[in-house]
Design goal:
- With about 350 residues, the protein is mainly β.
- It has one domain.
- It has 2 helices and 31 strands.
- A hairpin with a 5-residue loop joins strand 9 and strand 10.
- The termini are far apart.
């Protein structure tokens, strides 16, 4: 774990790997890369420098019969109990860990990554931040990949739509007091933010990938929990003088519901607990309207999995009109799209606004 302040020179890289990774401090790499991931242990430790062909592998020691000599590493609760240092964590009697400021219980499982400090790769051009693991949590965290001339890239829990060469999280949690920024501050386009989970994504913080104040277009934000999605704020991919960006939502099934009707089932003290219900992911219609009103495009796309077939259900009236705008609402269902008497058009009543001319693919 890290609880202090770590700064490297511009364009450099910081990588933290471990079975459980907790960052309570500040890591700064201007215009560079910050990679934080919790990974299962192996019998080899590889030490290498990015861009170099040479690496060093350290094999576990063996006895005269070729058997691996047992190693008894100190687990994290024991290490913290005996550290004598204020780490911002409390070890409970059952050996579970608890963040002091928030009271959140950290899963005592390999593959847990917790960020409750600051990660900063801001510069002229924003850098890149990866936060990966089986359980990923941002709790009172500030993640900044903004740049004066263009936003950077942030991946939390996986890559776009769960593709790419990085591992995907099962559960991803972003607390209400966390902020994730990949803005172009002065000029240029906003960056890219991915928040992904194969089971449940609980996203309650602020996400922003705005275009520059003087010029530039909005960026791209994906918020996807394949089995379940809980989100309470609209990502900001707007632009003051350019075109709005895109907000992508990509679960198995999704239902657009009236404002205030989407349940939030999280226990804030144990946000990593999840029991699959087979229900649709739900998103309040006001979040979609806020994005459209701000000039951003919204894409809902589904892919079937398990008992969920890949449906989109529009179960709330979407009332929005903005003639001359270029933003769109895209409903791209793997199976069916059901419009529950909330959009009706005919030759006598044709679509008039960009929203009404949405792209609908099934």
């Amino acid at each position: 774990m890290t609880a202090g302040n770590l700064t490297v020179k511009p364009q450099q890289q910081v990588t933290l790997l471990g079975g459980t990774v907790i960052n309570n401090g500040t890591i700064t790499a201007p215009g560079g890369n910050i990679n934080i991931a919790s990974v299962p242990g192996t019998s080899l430790v590889r030490i290498s420098q990015p861009g170099n062909l040479l690496s060093l592998e350290i094999e576990l020691q063996r006895d005269t019969n070729g058997e691996i000599i047992p190693i008894n590493p100190v687990d994290l609760p024991t290490l913290l109990t005996n550290s004598g240092t204020d780490t911002g964590l409390t070890v409970n009697p059952d050996n579970s860990l608890q963040l002091n400021d928030s009271g959140v219980t950290i899963p005592n499982q390999i593959g847990t990554t917790i960020i409750s400090g600051n990660l900063d790769v801001s510069s002229s051009l924003g850098g890149n931040i990866d936060i990966l693991g089986n359980q990923v949590g941002l709790i009172g965290a500030t993640i900044n990949a903004s740049g004066n001339n263009g936003g950077g890239n942030i991946r939390i829990g996986g890559d776009e739509q769960g593709n790419g060469n990085v591992p995907n999280a099962d559960i991803t949690y972003v607390s209400p007091d966390s902020t994730i920024n990949a803005d172009a501050v002065l000029a240029g386009d906003g960056g890219k933010i991915i928040v992904f989970a194969e089971e449940v994504a609980r996203i309650f913080g602020k996400l922003s990938a705005r275009g520059g104040a003087d010029n530039g277009d909005g960026g791209f934000v994906e918020t996807s929990g394949l089995q379940e999605l809980e989100i309470t704020t609209t990502p900001d991919v707007g632009a003051s003088l350019g075109s709005g960006g895109e907000w992508l939502i990509d679960p198995y099934n999704i239902e657009i519901v009236p404002a205030g009707n989407a349940p939030v089932n999280v226990d804030t003290a144990n946000p990593f607990t999840f029991t699959a219900t087979g229900n649709n992911a739900q998103i309040p219609v006001n979040l979609i309207l806020d994005a459209l009103t701000g000039g951003s495009s919204v894409t809902l796309t589904t892919s079937g999995g398990g008992s969920q077939e890949g449906n989109i259900v529009v179960n709330a009236a979407i009332g929005y009109s903005n003639r001359g705008a270029n933003n769109t609402l895209t409903l791209d269902a793997d199976n069916d799209t059901a419009l529950c008497d909330v959009m009706r058009y005919s030759k006598k009543n044709p679509p008039k606004s960009p929203l009404e001319r949405y792209r609908w693919r099934t």
